[in-house]
Amino acid sequence: xxxxxxxxxxxxxxxxxxxxxxxxxxxxxxxxxxxxxxxxxxxxxxxxxxxxxxxxxxxxxxxxxxxxxxxxxxxxxxxxxxxxxxxxxxxxxxxxxxxxxxxxxxxxxxxxxxxxxxxxxxxxxxxxxxxxxxxxxxxxxxxxxxxxxxxxxxxxxxxxxxxxxxxxxxxxxxxxxxxxxxxxxxxxxxxxxxxxxxxxxxxxxxxxxxxxxxxxxxxxxxxxxxxxxxxxxxxxxxxxxxxxxxxxxxxxxxxxxxxxxxxxxxxxxxxxxxxxxxxxxxxxxxxxxxxxxxxxxxxxxxxxxxxxxxxxxxxxxxxxxxxxxxxxxxxxxxxxxxxxxxxxxxxxxxxxxxxxxxxxxxxxxxxxxxxxxxxxxxxxxxxxxxxxxxxxxxxxxxxxxxxxxxxxxxxxxxxxxxxxxxxxxxxxxxxxxxxxxxxxxxxxxxxxxxxxxxxxxxxxxxxxxxxxxxxxxxxxxxxxxxxxxxxxxxxxxxxxxxxxxxxxxxxxxxxxxxxxxxxxxxxxxxxxxxxx
Length: 532
Ligand SMILES: [Zn+2]
Known about the structure:
Elements: E1 10-15, H1 20-29, E2 35-42, H2 46-59, E3 63-67, H3 73-80, E4 85-88, H4 96-99, H5 101-120, E5 128-134, E6 147-148, H6 161-174, E7 181-186, E8 189-190, H7 194-198, E9 212-214, E10 216-217, H8 218-233, E11 244-247, E12 254-256, H9 257-265, H10 272-275, E13 290-291, H11 294-301, H12 308-318, H13 321-325, H14 330-338, H15 348-353, H16 357-364, H17 367-371, H18 396-400, H19 427-436, E14 440-441, E15 455-458, E16 464-467, H20 469-474, H21 480-483, E17 488-489, H22 491-497, H23 499-505, E18 515-519, E19 525-529
Parallel strand pairs: 1-2, 1-4, 2-3, 4-5, 5-7, 6-13, 7-11, 8-10
Antiparallel strand pairs: 9-12, 14-15, 15-16, 17-18, 18-19
Helix pairs in contact: 1-8, 3-5, 5-6, 8-11, 22-23
Protein backbone atom coordinates (compact mmCIF):
# COMPACT_ATOMS: atom_id res chain seq x y z
CA UNK A 1 0.00 0.00 0.00
CA UNK A 2 1.25 3.43 -0.90
CA UNK A 3 1.49 5.77 2.00
CA UNK A 4 3.56 8.53 0.52
CA UNK A 5 2.06 10.71 -2.17
CA UNK A 6 5.52 11.22 -3.56
CA UNK A 7 5.49 7.56 -4.64
CA UNK A 8 3.11 8.46 -7.47
CA UNK A 9 5.22 11.29 -8.69
CA UNK A 10 7.68 10.94 -11.50
CA UNK A 11 11.02 12.32 -12.61
CA UNK A 12 11.58 13.71 -16.09
CA UNK A 13 15.16 13.80 -17.38
CA UNK A 14 15.96 16.42 -20.00
CA UNK A 15 19.10 16.99 -22.04
CA UNK A 16 19.48 20.36 -23.73
CA UNK A 17 17.24 21.94 -21.11
CA UNK A 18 19.15 25.23 -21.12
CA UNK A 19 18.74 25.75 -24.90
CA UNK A 20 15.98 27.66 -26.69
CA UNK A 21 13.56 24.73 -26.80
CA UNK A 22 14.52 23.70 -23.27
CA UNK A 23 13.82 27.11 -21.80
CA UNK A 24 10.22 26.84 -22.99
CA UNK A 25 9.89 23.16 -22.09
CA UNK A 26 11.29 22.89 -18.55
CA UNK A 27 8.82 25.41 -17.02
CA UNK A 28 5.85 23.80 -18.78
CA UNK A 29 6.80 20.29 -17.66
CA UNK A 30 7.11 21.60 -14.11
CA UNK A 31 3.49 22.80 -14.33
CA UNK A 32 2.46 19.14 -14.15
CA UNK A 33 1.50 18.07 -10.63
CA UNK A 34 2.59 14.52 -11.34
CA UNK A 35 6.16 15.64 -11.94
CA UNK A 36 8.21 15.57 -8.76
CA UNK A 37 11.28 17.00 -10.40
CA UNK A 38 13.16 17.56 -13.60
CA UNK A 39 16.73 16.35 -13.94
CA UNK A 40 18.82 18.33 -16.34
CA UNK A 41 22.07 17.31 -17.98
CA UNK A 42 23.90 20.60 -18.39
CA UNK A 43 27.26 21.43 -19.96
CA UNK A 44 29.77 22.91 -17.58
CA UNK A 45 30.02 26.17 -19.56
CA UNK A 46 29.50 29.74 -18.41
CA UNK A 47 26.31 30.19 -20.41
CA UNK A 48 24.77 26.88 -19.39
CA UNK A 49 25.71 27.34 -15.74
CA UNK A 50 24.01 30.73 -15.78
CA UNK A 51 20.78 29.23 -17.18
CA UNK A 52 20.95 26.37 -14.69
CA UNK A 53 21.31 28.85 -11.83
CA UNK A 54 18.15 30.63 -12.99
CA UNK A 55 16.24 27.34 -12.82
CA UNK A 56 17.57 26.57 -9.33
CA UNK A 57 16.59 30.01 -8.12
CA UNK A 58 13.08 29.69 -9.50
CA UNK A 59 12.29 26.03 -8.85
CA UNK A 60 14.62 24.99 -6.01
CA UNK A 61 14.60 21.23 -5.40
CA UNK A 62 12.22 20.58 -8.27
CA UNK A 63 15.20 20.97 -10.58
CA UNK A 64 18.29 18.80 -10.24
CA UNK A 65 21.33 19.84 -12.24
CA UNK A 66 23.84 17.25 -13.40
CA UNK A 67 26.89 18.78 -15.02
CA UNK A 68 28.34 16.70 -17.83
CA UNK A 69 28.43 15.89 -21.52
CA UNK A 70 25.78 13.88 -23.34
CA UNK A 71 28.49 12.08 -25.30
CA UNK A 72 29.74 10.60 -22.02
CA UNK A 73 27.72 7.50 -21.10
CA UNK A 74 28.48 7.91 -17.38
CA UNK A 75 26.98 11.39 -17.40
CA UNK A 76 23.98 10.00 -19.28
CA UNK A 77 23.55 7.22 -16.71
CA UNK A 78 23.36 9.76 -13.92
CA UNK A 79 20.66 11.79 -15.62
CA UNK A 80 18.42 8.90 -16.77
CA UNK A 81 18.55 7.10 -13.43
CA UNK A 82 15.08 6.90 -11.81
CA UNK A 83 13.47 8.91 -14.62
CA UNK A 84 10.11 7.90 -16.08
CA UNK A 85 10.70 9.95 -19.21
CA UNK A 86 13.83 11.15 -20.95
CA UNK A 87 13.58 14.01 -23.42
CA UNK A 88 16.65 14.36 -25.61
CA UNK A 89 16.66 17.88 -26.95
CA UNK A 90 20.40 18.38 -26.68
CA UNK A 91 21.62 19.54 -30.07
CA UNK A 92 24.42 21.54 -31.57
CA UNK A 93 22.65 23.44 -34.33
CA UNK A 94 23.71 25.98 -36.96
CA UNK A 95 25.46 28.38 -36.84
CA UNK A 96 27.63 26.62 -34.20
CA UNK A 97 27.37 23.37 -36.17
CA UNK A 98 28.70 25.15 -39.29
CA UNK A 99 31.74 26.63 -37.54
CA UNK A 100 32.40 23.55 -35.39
CA UNK A 101 31.09 20.44 -37.22
CA UNK A 102 32.93 18.22 -34.72
CA UNK A 103 30.77 19.58 -31.89
CA UNK A 104 27.59 18.80 -33.86
CA UNK A 105 28.71 15.23 -34.48
CA UNK A 106 29.73 14.73 -30.87
CA UNK A 107 26.44 15.95 -29.44
CA UNK A 108 23.92 14.95 -32.10
CA UNK A 109 25.26 11.52 -32.98
CA UNK A 110 27.59 10.28 -30.25
CA UNK A 111 25.39 11.99 -27.67
CA UNK A 112 22.27 10.20 -28.91
CA UNK A 113 24.23 6.95 -28.87
CA UNK A 114 25.48 7.35 -25.31
CA UNK A 115 22.04 8.34 -24.05
CA UNK A 116 20.40 5.39 -25.78
CA UNK A 117 22.96 2.98 -24.31
CA UNK A 118 22.45 4.43 -20.85
CA UNK A 119 18.70 3.81 -21.13
CA UNK A 120 19.12 0.35 -22.69
CA UNK A 121 21.09 -0.75 -19.66
CA UNK A 122 18.13 -0.08 -17.39
CA UNK A 123 16.20 -3.35 -17.24
CA UNK A 124 13.73 -2.55 -14.47
CA UNK A 125 11.40 0.41 -15.09
CA UNK A 126 13.12 1.65 -18.20
CA UNK A 127 12.26 5.29 -18.96
CA UNK A 128 10.43 6.24 -22.14
CA UNK A 129 12.55 8.25 -24.57
CA UNK A 130 11.36 11.23 -26.61
CA UNK A 131 14.10 12.12 -29.08
CA UNK A 132 14.03 15.48 -30.85
CA UNK A 133 15.28 15.27 -34.42
CA UNK A 134 15.01 17.91 -37.13
CA UNK A 135 13.53 19.03 -40.44
CA UNK A 136 17.14 19.39 -41.62
CA UNK A 137 17.16 15.60 -42.17
CA UNK A 138 15.03 16.09 -45.32
CA UNK A 139 17.28 18.62 -47.03
CA UNK A 140 16.19 21.11 -49.63
CA UNK A 141 12.68 21.76 -51.00
CA UNK A 142 11.20 24.31 -53.35
CA UNK A 143 7.89 25.10 -55.08
CA UNK A 144 7.99 21.85 -57.06
CA UNK A 145 7.50 19.71 -53.93
CA UNK A 146 6.76 22.16 -51.12
CA UNK A 147 4.87 19.55 -49.08
CA UNK A 148 6.48 16.62 -47.33
CA UNK A 149 5.97 13.92 -44.73
CA UNK A 150 8.00 11.64 -42.46
CA UNK A 151 8.42 8.83 -44.97
CA UNK A 152 10.04 11.12 -47.56
CA UNK A 153 13.72 10.61 -48.45
CA UNK A 154 16.34 11.96 -46.07
CA UNK A 155 18.72 14.15 -48.06
CA UNK A 156 20.61 16.28 -45.53
CA UNK A 157 22.18 19.29 -47.23
CA UNK A 158 25.76 19.21 -48.45
CA UNK A 159 28.30 20.20 -45.76
CA UNK A 160 25.48 20.37 -43.18
CA UNK A 161 26.97 18.34 -40.36
CA UNK A 162 23.96 19.19 -38.25
CA UNK A 163 21.49 17.55 -40.65
CA UNK A 164 23.70 14.51 -41.22
CA UNK A 165 24.48 13.94 -37.54
CA UNK A 166 20.78 14.20 -36.70
CA UNK A 167 19.91 11.63 -39.40
CA UNK A 168 22.35 9.24 -37.77
CA UNK A 169 21.30 10.13 -34.22
CA UNK A 170 17.61 9.46 -34.77
CA UNK A 171 18.37 6.12 -36.45
CA UNK A 172 20.19 5.02 -33.30
CA UNK A 173 16.96 5.67 -31.37
CA UNK A 174 14.70 3.92 -33.90
CA UNK A 175 16.93 0.83 -33.91
CA UNK A 176 17.67 0.76 -30.20
CA UNK A 177 16.64 -1.86 -27.67
CA UNK A 178 14.67 0.76 -25.76
CA UNK A 179 11.09 -0.47 -25.33
CA UNK A 180 9.28 2.84 -25.57
CA UNK A 181 10.62 5.67 -27.73
CA UNK A 182 9.48 8.31 -30.14
CA UNK A 183 11.25 10.55 -32.65
CA UNK A 184 9.98 14.07 -33.27
CA UNK A 185 11.43 16.05 -36.15
CA UNK A 186 11.34 19.66 -35.03
CA UNK A 187 11.05 22.34 -37.69
CA UNK A 188 12.65 25.80 -37.56
CA UNK A 189 11.64 27.23 -34.22
CA UNK A 190 10.86 30.88 -33.54
CA UNK A 191 12.38 31.82 -30.22
CA UNK A 192 13.14 34.92 -28.26
CA UNK A 193 16.85 34.93 -29.18
CA UNK A 194 16.24 34.56 -32.90
CA UNK A 195 17.29 38.11 -33.84
CA UNK A 196 20.36 38.00 -31.64
CA UNK A 197 21.40 34.54 -32.89
CA UNK A 198 20.94 35.39 -36.57
CA UNK A 199 22.27 38.91 -36.87
CA UNK A 200 25.80 37.88 -36.02
CA UNK A 201 26.98 35.68 -38.88
CA UNK A 202 26.37 34.40 -42.37
CA UNK A 203 23.69 31.84 -41.49
CA UNK A 204 20.74 34.02 -42.50
CA UNK A 205 22.00 33.95 -46.09
CA UNK A 206 21.68 30.15 -46.25
CA UNK A 207 17.88 30.52 -46.41
CA UNK A 208 16.65 30.62 -50.03
CA UNK A 209 13.97 33.29 -50.51
CA UNK A 210 11.73 30.71 -52.14
CA UNK A 211 12.02 27.89 -49.63
CA UNK A 212 8.68 26.68 -48.23
CA UNK A 213 8.81 26.69 -44.42
CA UNK A 214 6.48 25.61 -41.66
CA UNK A 215 7.66 27.17 -38.40
CA UNK A 216 6.91 26.29 -34.83
CA UNK A 217 7.28 28.53 -31.83
CA UNK A 218 9.28 27.91 -28.69
CA UNK A 219 6.17 27.93 -26.49
CA UNK A 220 4.15 25.59 -28.68
CA UNK A 221 7.03 23.11 -28.90
CA UNK A 222 7.31 23.17 -25.10
CA UNK A 223 3.56 22.73 -24.74
CA UNK A 224 3.65 19.69 -27.01
CA UNK A 225 6.17 17.97 -24.74
CA UNK A 226 4.19 18.82 -21.64
CA UNK A 227 1.01 17.46 -23.22
CA UNK A 228 2.70 14.25 -24.35
CA UNK A 229 3.76 13.49 -20.78
CA UNK A 230 0.46 14.58 -19.27
CA UNK A 231 -1.70 12.54 -21.62
CA UNK A 232 0.60 9.54 -21.39
CA UNK A 233 0.45 9.62 -17.58
CA UNK A 234 -3.32 9.88 -17.80
CA UNK A 235 -3.37 6.80 -20.05
CA UNK A 236 -4.81 8.74 -22.96
CA UNK A 237 -2.11 8.10 -25.55
CA UNK A 238 -2.66 5.51 -28.26
CA UNK A 239 -0.34 4.77 -31.14
CA UNK A 240 2.14 7.51 -30.33
CA UNK A 241 5.13 5.54 -29.15
CA UNK A 242 7.56 3.88 -31.57
CA UNK A 243 6.67 6.47 -34.17
CA UNK A 244 8.24 9.35 -36.06
CA UNK A 245 6.54 12.74 -36.34
CA UNK A 246 6.94 16.17 -37.88
CA UNK A 247 6.59 19.02 -35.44
CA UNK A 248 5.35 22.20 -37.08
CA UNK A 249 2.58 24.60 -36.16
CA UNK A 250 0.30 24.24 -39.15
CA UNK A 251 -1.32 26.69 -41.50
CA UNK A 252 -0.57 29.93 -39.62
CA UNK A 253 3.12 29.06 -39.65
CA UNK A 254 3.53 28.20 -43.35
CA UNK A 255 5.42 30.86 -45.23
CA UNK A 256 8.49 31.17 -47.49
CA UNK A 257 12.02 32.32 -46.73
CA UNK A 258 11.22 35.74 -48.20
CA UNK A 259 8.17 36.16 -45.93
CA UNK A 260 10.17 35.00 -42.94
CA UNK A 261 12.55 37.93 -43.38
CA UNK A 262 9.62 40.20 -44.26
CA UNK A 263 7.77 39.46 -41.03
CA UNK A 264 10.87 39.51 -38.85
CA UNK A 265 12.02 42.86 -40.22
CA UNK A 266 8.52 44.33 -40.00
CA UNK A 267 8.92 44.81 -36.26
CA UNK A 268 11.45 47.52 -37.01
CA UNK A 269 9.43 48.86 -39.96
CA UNK A 270 11.76 47.14 -42.39
CA UNK A 271 11.20 44.63 -45.15
CA UNK A 272 13.13 42.00 -47.09
CA UNK A 273 13.53 44.33 -50.06
CA UNK A 274 14.65 47.29 -47.97
CA UNK A 275 17.24 45.29 -46.06
CA UNK A 276 18.45 42.59 -48.44
CA UNK A 277 19.37 41.88 -52.07
CA UNK A 278 18.16 38.94 -54.15
CA UNK A 279 21.68 37.73 -54.90
CA UNK A 280 22.78 37.54 -51.26
CA UNK A 281 21.12 34.25 -50.40
CA UNK A 282 21.69 30.67 -51.47
CA UNK A 283 19.17 29.30 -53.93
CA UNK A 284 19.33 25.70 -52.70
CA UNK A 285 21.01 23.31 -50.22
CA UNK A 286 18.85 24.36 -47.29
CA UNK A 287 15.97 22.58 -45.52
CA UNK A 288 12.34 23.12 -44.40
CA UNK A 289 9.01 22.37 -46.08
CA UNK A 290 5.28 22.51 -45.45
CA UNK A 291 4.39 19.43 -43.41
CA UNK A 292 1.65 17.22 -44.80
CA UNK A 293 1.50 15.42 -41.49
CA UNK A 294 2.03 18.00 -38.72
CA UNK A 295 -1.66 17.57 -37.90
CA UNK A 296 -0.89 14.07 -36.57
CA UNK A 297 0.77 15.45 -33.41
CA UNK A 298 -1.77 18.27 -33.21
CA UNK A 299 -4.67 15.84 -33.23
CA UNK A 300 -3.07 13.82 -30.45
CA UNK A 301 -1.79 16.63 -28.23
CA UNK A 302 -3.41 19.98 -29.17
CA UNK A 303 -0.50 22.33 -28.88
CA UNK A 304 -0.62 24.55 -31.98
CA UNK A 305 -1.67 27.92 -30.58
CA UNK A 306 0.66 30.48 -32.10
CA UNK A 307 1.27 31.89 -35.58
CA UNK A 308 4.35 33.50 -37.11
CA UNK A 309 2.61 36.89 -37.24
CA UNK A 310 1.46 36.60 -33.64
CA UNK A 311 4.96 35.64 -32.56
CA UNK A 312 6.53 38.81 -33.99
CA UNK A 313 3.77 40.96 -32.52
CA UNK A 314 4.58 39.49 -29.13
CA UNK A 315 8.31 40.16 -29.64
CA UNK A 316 7.51 43.82 -30.38
CA UNK A 317 5.46 44.03 -27.20
CA UNK A 318 8.09 42.34 -25.05
CA UNK A 319 11.01 44.34 -26.43
CA UNK A 320 10.14 48.02 -26.75
CA UNK A 321 13.72 48.58 -27.88
CA UNK A 322 12.71 47.54 -31.42
CA UNK A 323 10.45 50.59 -31.57
CA UNK A 324 13.59 52.73 -31.39
CA UNK A 325 14.81 51.28 -34.66
CA UNK A 326 11.63 52.43 -36.41
CA UNK A 327 12.96 55.94 -36.94
CA UNK A 328 16.22 54.73 -38.46
CA UNK A 329 16.64 54.77 -42.25
CA UNK A 330 16.28 51.20 -43.63
CA UNK A 331 19.33 51.74 -45.83
CA UNK A 332 21.35 52.49 -42.72
CA UNK A 333 20.21 49.32 -40.93
CA UNK A 334 21.03 47.28 -44.03
CA UNK A 335 24.41 48.96 -44.33
CA UNK A 336 25.37 48.72 -40.64
CA UNK A 337 23.68 45.58 -39.35
CA UNK A 338 23.25 43.22 -42.29
CA UNK A 339 25.75 43.95 -45.06
CA UNK A 340 28.82 43.32 -42.86
CA UNK A 341 27.53 39.77 -42.28
CA UNK A 342 28.01 39.02 -45.99
CA UNK A 343 31.74 38.89 -45.26
CA UNK A 344 31.37 36.26 -42.55
CA UNK A 345 33.06 32.95 -43.36
CA UNK A 346 29.63 31.27 -43.17
CA UNK A 347 28.09 33.52 -45.83
CA UNK A 348 27.49 32.24 -49.41
CA UNK A 349 28.73 35.53 -50.94
CA UNK A 350 31.98 35.09 -49.03
CA UNK A 351 32.32 31.52 -50.36
CA UNK A 352 32.03 33.07 -53.81
CA UNK A 353 34.67 35.70 -52.99
CA UNK A 354 36.97 33.02 -51.56
CA UNK A 355 36.42 30.77 -54.59
CA UNK A 356 35.24 28.01 -52.23
CA UNK A 357 33.93 26.03 -55.20
CA UNK A 358 32.37 23.10 -53.33
CA UNK A 359 30.26 25.35 -51.15
CA UNK A 360 29.32 27.62 -54.06
CA UNK A 361 28.18 24.69 -56.19
CA UNK A 362 26.26 23.22 -53.27
CA UNK A 363 24.49 26.52 -52.55
CA UNK A 364 23.88 27.85 -56.08
CA UNK A 365 24.48 25.05 -58.62
CA UNK A 366 27.53 26.75 -60.11
CA UNK A 367 29.71 29.83 -59.87
CA UNK A 368 28.01 31.24 -62.96
CA UNK A 369 24.56 30.70 -61.46
CA UNK A 370 25.64 32.60 -58.34
CA UNK A 371 27.17 35.44 -60.34
CA UNK A 372 24.17 35.72 -62.63
CA UNK A 373 21.61 36.17 -59.87
CA UNK A 374 19.77 39.47 -60.33
CA UNK A 375 20.62 42.43 -58.13
CA UNK A 376 17.17 43.94 -58.40
CA UNK A 377 14.08 42.50 -56.78
CA UNK A 378 12.00 43.22 -59.88
CA UNK A 379 14.11 40.66 -61.75
CA UNK A 380 13.92 37.92 -59.11
CA UNK A 381 10.97 35.48 -59.32
CA UNK A 382 9.36 35.02 -55.93
CA UNK A 383 7.32 31.91 -55.08
CA UNK A 384 5.28 33.84 -52.50
CA UNK A 385 4.36 36.36 -55.20
CA UNK A 386 3.23 33.68 -57.63
CA UNK A 387 6.34 32.98 -59.68
CA UNK A 388 8.35 29.80 -60.28
CA UNK A 389 12.13 29.83 -60.72
CA UNK A 390 11.87 30.32 -64.48
CA UNK A 391 9.38 33.15 -64.08
CA UNK A 392 6.33 30.95 -64.76
CA UNK A 393 3.04 31.87 -63.07
CA UNK A 394 1.99 29.90 -59.98
CA UNK A 395 -1.00 30.11 -57.66
CA UNK A 396 0.87 30.42 -54.37
CA UNK A 397 -2.21 30.45 -52.14
CA UNK A 398 -3.62 27.34 -53.84
CA UNK A 399 -0.27 25.54 -53.61
CA UNK A 400 -0.08 26.42 -49.92
CA UNK A 401 -3.54 24.98 -49.26
CA UNK A 402 -3.19 21.46 -47.86
CA UNK A 403 -6.45 20.49 -49.56
CA UNK A 404 -4.77 20.82 -52.98
CA UNK A 405 -1.78 18.58 -52.28
CA UNK A 406 -3.06 15.70 -54.38
CA UNK A 407 -4.47 17.94 -57.09
CA UNK A 408 -0.96 19.26 -57.68
CA UNK A 409 0.65 15.84 -57.27
CA UNK A 410 2.88 17.00 -54.41
CA UNK A 411 2.64 13.77 -52.43
CA UNK A 412 5.79 11.69 -52.90
CA UNK A 413 5.85 7.98 -53.61
CA UNK A 414 7.44 5.70 -51.02
CA UNK A 415 7.59 2.55 -53.10
CA UNK A 416 4.87 0.37 -51.59
CA UNK A 417 1.09 0.26 -51.26
CA UNK A 418 0.44 2.86 -48.57
CA UNK A 419 -3.27 2.15 -48.45
CA UNK A 420 -2.43 -1.14 -46.71
CA UNK A 421 -2.66 -1.10 -42.91
CA UNK A 422 0.74 -1.54 -41.25
CA UNK A 423 -0.29 -4.96 -39.86
CA UNK A 424 -0.68 -6.20 -43.43
CA UNK A 425 2.76 -5.22 -44.67
CA UNK A 426 4.75 -8.24 -45.74
CA UNK A 427 7.96 -9.20 -47.48
CA UNK A 428 6.62 -8.34 -50.97
CA UNK A 429 6.07 -4.77 -49.79
CA UNK A 430 9.67 -4.69 -48.57
CA UNK A 431 10.90 -5.93 -51.92
CA UNK A 432 8.91 -3.25 -53.74
CA UNK A 433 10.19 -0.53 -51.44
CA UNK A 434 13.79 -1.69 -51.90
CA UNK A 435 13.40 -1.77 -55.69
CA UNK A 436 12.10 1.81 -55.66
CA UNK A 437 15.37 2.71 -53.92
CA UNK A 438 17.37 0.89 -56.61
CA UNK A 439 18.20 -2.04 -54.34
CA UNK A 440 16.69 -5.21 -53.00
CA UNK A 441 15.47 -6.78 -49.81
CA UNK A 442 17.73 -9.76 -49.13
CA UNK A 443 15.56 -11.28 -46.42
CA UNK A 444 13.25 -13.93 -47.80
CA UNK A 445 10.59 -13.59 -45.15
CA UNK A 446 9.40 -11.38 -42.33
CA UNK A 447 6.86 -11.53 -39.57
CA UNK A 448 3.88 -9.87 -41.24
CA UNK A 449 3.33 -6.34 -39.94
CA UNK A 450 6.40 -6.29 -37.70
CA UNK A 451 8.26 -3.19 -38.85
CA UNK A 452 10.66 -3.16 -35.91
CA UNK A 453 12.65 -6.31 -36.60
CA UNK A 454 15.67 -5.65 -38.78
CA UNK A 455 15.79 -7.16 -42.25
CA UNK A 456 18.71 -7.49 -44.67
CA UNK A 457 18.92 -5.08 -47.59
CA UNK A 458 21.22 -4.27 -50.46
CA UNK A 459 21.53 -0.85 -52.12
CA UNK A 460 22.13 -0.15 -55.81
CA UNK A 461 25.89 -0.09 -55.17
CA UNK A 462 25.87 -3.53 -53.58
CA UNK A 463 26.28 -2.41 -49.95
CA UNK A 464 24.58 -4.89 -47.66
CA UNK A 465 23.05 -3.65 -44.43
CA UNK A 466 20.51 -4.46 -41.76
CA UNK A 467 17.77 -1.98 -40.97
CA UNK A 468 14.19 -2.03 -39.71
CA UNK A 469 11.35 -1.72 -42.21
CA UNK A 470 10.14 1.14 -39.98
CA UNK A 471 13.25 3.24 -40.60
CA UNK A 472 13.09 2.66 -44.35
CA UNK A 473 9.37 2.70 -45.16
CA UNK A 474 8.11 5.13 -42.53
CA UNK A 475 11.10 7.35 -41.82
CA UNK A 476 13.00 7.79 -45.11
CA UNK A 477 16.31 6.13 -44.13
CA UNK A 478 18.36 4.06 -46.56
CA UNK A 479 21.88 2.69 -47.13
CA UNK A 480 24.15 3.85 -44.28
CA UNK A 481 27.15 3.88 -46.61
CA UNK A 482 25.62 5.82 -49.52
CA UNK A 483 23.23 8.11 -47.67
CA UNK A 484 24.25 8.33 -44.02
CA UNK A 485 28.02 8.49 -43.80
CA UNK A 486 29.22 11.37 -41.65
CA UNK A 487 31.04 13.99 -43.69
CA UNK A 488 30.15 12.54 -47.12
CA UNK A 489 27.37 13.72 -49.44
CA UNK A 490 26.96 11.53 -52.53
CA UNK A 491 23.34 12.21 -53.50
CA UNK A 492 24.10 13.10 -57.15
CA UNK A 493 25.15 9.46 -57.44
CA UNK A 494 22.39 8.02 -55.23
CA UNK A 495 19.63 9.80 -57.18
CA UNK A 496 20.81 8.26 -60.45
CA UNK A 497 19.89 4.79 -59.27
CA UNK A 498 17.14 5.46 -56.74
CA UNK A 499 13.82 6.84 -58.02
CA UNK A 500 12.87 7.36 -54.36
CA UNK A 501 15.62 9.94 -53.86
CA UNK A 502 15.45 11.26 -57.44
CA UNK A 503 11.91 12.57 -57.01
CA UNK A 504 13.24 15.35 -54.74
CA UNK A 505 16.91 15.64 -55.65
CA UNK A 506 16.29 16.75 -59.25
CA UNK A 507 13.97 19.58 -58.22
CA UNK A 508 17.08 21.59 -57.43
CA UNK A 509 19.92 19.60 -59.01
CA UNK A 510 20.62 19.03 -62.69
CA UNK A 511 20.71 15.46 -63.92
CA UNK A 512 24.22 15.98 -65.27
CA UNK A 513 25.61 17.22 -61.96
CA UNK A 514 28.10 14.60 -60.82
CA UNK A 515 29.69 15.77 -57.61
CA UNK A 516 30.88 14.02 -54.54
CA UNK A 517 31.20 16.38 -51.57
CA UNK A 518 33.07 15.61 -48.36
CA UNK A 519 34.88 16.97 -45.34
CA UNK A 520 38.41 15.85 -44.55
CA UNK A 521 39.44 15.02 -40.99
CA UNK A 522 40.03 18.71 -40.28
CA UNK A 523 36.58 19.62 -41.66
CA UNK A 524 37.91 21.33 -44.76
CA UNK A 525 35.28 21.18 -47.49
CA UNK A 526 36.15 19.24 -50.65
CA UNK A 527 34.35 18.20 -53.80
CA UNK A 528 35.18 16.40 -57.00
CA UNK A 529 33.55 15.51 -60.25
CA UNK A 530 32.67 11.85 -60.53
CA UNK A 531 32.43 9.75 -63.65
CA UNK A 532 28.76 8.85 -63.85
ZN1 LIG B 1 24.97 1.95 -50.53
